[in-house]
């Protein structure tokens, strides 16, 4: 986390909450740019066929990045991998 993030979290006392999001922007009616965080997924349907536009952020695939930021990934049998034993997605806000 950078200094801005740490100051924001300290100042507003947000606790352990968060969200996920997906957004898209169409540039000049020609280029579609899509971004997602967490469990949100962007899809488009063309002639009744859905196509995935974003890549899921999976905890197990991002374990090294999570650990490099001071977190951990728990792998309790029968459960899904969780960040710091709680969050079931690798990225949220």
UniProtKB/TrEMBL annotation:
PROSITE patterns: PPM_2 (PS51746). Residues 1-93 form the PPM-type phosphatase domain. One of its GO terms (molecular function) is protein serine/threonine phosphatase activity. SUPFAM superfamilies: PP2C-like. InterPro entries: PP2C, PPM-type-like_dom_sf, PPM-type_phosphatase-like_dom. CDD domains: PP2Cc (cd00143). This is PPM-type phosphatase domain-containing protein. It comes from Brassica carinata (Ethiopian mustard). The lineage of its organism: Eukaryota, Viridiplantae, Streptophyta, Embryophyta, Tracheophyta.
């Amino acid at each position: 986390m950078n200094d801005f993030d740490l100051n924001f979290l300290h100042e507003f006392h947000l606790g352990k909450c968060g969200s996920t999001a997906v957004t898209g922007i169409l540039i000049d009616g020609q280029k579609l740019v899509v971004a997602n965080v967490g469990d949100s997924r962007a899809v488009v349907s063309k002639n009744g066929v859905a196509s995935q536009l974003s890549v899921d952020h999976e905890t197990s695939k991002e374990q090294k990045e999570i650990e490099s930021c001071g977190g951990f990934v728990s792998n309790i049998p029968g459960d899904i991998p969780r960040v710091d034993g709680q969050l079931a997605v690798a990225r949220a806000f």
